[in-house]
Amino acid sequence: MTEIFEAIKKSAIRIREAIEFDDTGYSEDQNATGDTQLKLDIKSDIIIEEEFRKIPSIKEIVSEEKNDKTPLHVEGHYLIGYDPLDGSSLIDVNLSVGSIFGIYEGGYAGKNLIASVYVVYGPRVELVIATDKVRMYRLNKSDEFVYLKDIVLNEKGKLNAPGSTQMCWEPKHKKMIDDIFADGYRLRYSGGMVPDLHQILLKGGGLFSYPSTSDAPKGKLRLIFEVFPFAFVYEKAGGGSVDGKNRILDLTPEHPHDTSPCFFGSNSEVQRVLKTYE
Ligand code: P6P
């Protein structure tokens, strides 16, 4: 898998440059979920596909920005599901965004995930690779990703990142979020999944939630490209991820763009979610 991590690093350097200097306008196209695509969404997807095409061990890729899977090398082994530029609409207001990758073997179910990677394009470019552990790297002046530290979550955290439209929350969800704030947790939510989840990981823990709502009963975030990869990161960092009742990594999508309600956090906060939704 080392060659895959190296390809992601090369992509990240090229995408960072596109973010800083390219046109952030909208294209005329929509992705499979109906989101109007930014030119940067499409350019980031092209960059990543170009880098992955050079790697014989990759059998197939599937991108949030494409309707269907893309076969790469028939003799390949790995399957990669990825979101090339998550939260790209935040670039217009100069907030941090990211790329998310899930590396699968034998299928795209949670149980097939063997590694995940994400990149944060913020004041600094940071890369996190989860295999047996969660390792964090930062881009230096020579365009090298330098290892900084392993990321480990505390049993209980201090940050609360409540996503989606509050007026569409179920009453039990609203009560849970209000109770968490009443316990002194601080609100940390930018609307970018990657920086929001990265912050909770680096600050020792808390809860990120994107629940089932009346306007999105199956949630908004995509299992293969976003939810599985971060569920893997949070579990390897010592925390957990559920859909309210089930462990996220026990789920199997029917279609590549399937979404799921999702909660990511330290163990204490995940237990609080399970109790609320039991
Ligand atoms: P809401 C960005 O569009 C995104 O897909 C995730 O990065 C983010 O967590 C979520 O949507 C934000 O959605 O409904 O809270 O604005």
Task: Describe the protein.
The chain is an alpha+beta fold and 278 residues long. It has two domains: 2-150, Fructose-1,6-Bisphosphatase, subunit A, domain 1 (Fructose-1,6-Bisphosphatase, Chain A, domain 1, 2-Layer Sandwich), CATH 3.30.540.10; 159-277, D-Maltodextrin-Binding Protein, domain 2 (3-Layer(aba) Sandwich). Helix content is 29%, strand content 28%. The protein contains six helices and 15 strands. Strand 8 and strand 9 (134-139) form a beta hairpin. Helix 1 (2-21) packs antiparallel against helix 2 (39-53). The longest helix has 20 residues, at 2-21. Bound molecules: 6-O-phosphono-alpha-D-fructofuranose (P6P).
List the helices and strands and how they pair.
Blueprint: H1 2-21, E1 26-30, E2 36-38, H2 39-53, E3 58-63, E4 70-71, E5 78-86, E6 97-105, E7 113-121, E8 125-130, E9 134-139, E10 145-150, E11 159-162, H3 171-182, E12 186-187, H4 193-202, E13 206-210, H5 223-236, E14 240-242, E15 262-265, H6 267-277
Parallel strand pairs: 3-5, 11-12, 11-13
Antiparallel strand pairs: 1-2, 3-4, 5-6, 6-7, 7-8, 8-9, 9-10, 13-15, 14-15
The structure holds 6-O-phosphono-alpha-D-fructofuranose.
Residues 86-87, 163-164, 191-193, 220 line the site of 6-O-phosphono-alpha-D-fructofuranose.
